[in-house]
Amino acid sequence: MRISTIEAIPLKHSLEDGRGFGGTRGVTTTRTATLVKLTTTDGTVGWGEAFAPPRTVATLVEEVFRDAVVGTDPMNADTLADDVYTGDIVGYHFGREGVVQAALTGVEVAMWDLRGKQLGEPVRRLLGGQNREQVTPYASTMYITEWGEDPAEPMSAAAEEGFTAAKIKIGRSVDDDVHRVETAREILGDDAHLMVDYNGNYTPSQAIESIHAIEQYDLTWVEEPVPPENREGYERIRTRVDVPLAAGEAHFGRFEFTDLVTDGTVDIIQPNLGRCGGLAEARYIAQVATTENVQVRPHVWNSGVGLAAALQFASTVPSYPEPSGRAGQPVLFEFDRSENPLRHKILTEPFDPTGGSLDVPDEPGLGIDIDEDAVDEYRVD
Question: What are the boundaries of the region Disordered (predicted)?
Fold first, then answer.
């Protein structure tokens, strides 16, 4: 089996006027993704997602990766990142940049999808590791909205859907942070996992003040309290608060994640399987994290393809230092509850996170089938 063609497919869904939403550093009025479609000489198709500006990353995939990938064996997925870093693809001056890492991820994940289909195994078995059959989805919700949504509404919806964990957006002011966290805790109940995401909107001093004000609500983690580049800020926060810190959605590749882990300033890292460098990179990142006793919980704000890749990966992450099969903490898996048809309409069988658990597909590859008519509906070539 050899790869015969590669196609990058930029997708876009526009929200209705006045229905933009997001975090404290800005709202979005569109949902986008770039799918990577690899076809082999025997007609097998593999899919991946590059999570970056769609037309830009699509051009990069087809201009730079086509010649490097067409004609190769999908079994070479493990070495694709090395070829980017050493300069065989792109050139070593640019290989670590975010858009390049997103393009690499889309192509590499599609190769793993082909690999699984070739061997008749789900990607999680090929990756090795824990090989869990289920994870615990958490509702990523309570966004900052253009229409001033009552924060109780999305949280009540998540509770009604059976979610036992949720992550909410905060970071506009300490008083607002307390109000939103208190609302979420009251609705979810005392036993639910509750996480907060600042999207890097605070200075270290502001973050410390806010965390001290909300830590009474038993937070599972605090995400990106300061910008990802503010490493000294993370260090300052770490010395002043006891709540676990999480980061990683804005980090790319093994080198940035290794620094994030070995700095000792976060308790949870969050690679995104649309831009972290691919499944082999994510596996390496998880191994580095394990050596420092840092948890791995992927960031997921992707289309259905990136979600499927993250789910396959999440099922394999180490439970160290807890013994396999007897872990006390659930593997929490992000499931966005905002409007995004690219998450469910492009899959023939969308994922269902309601009810408190999420099954990991056991079918070959990523375990998904793509509705290509739906893909064409959102295509923006």
Answer: 348-369
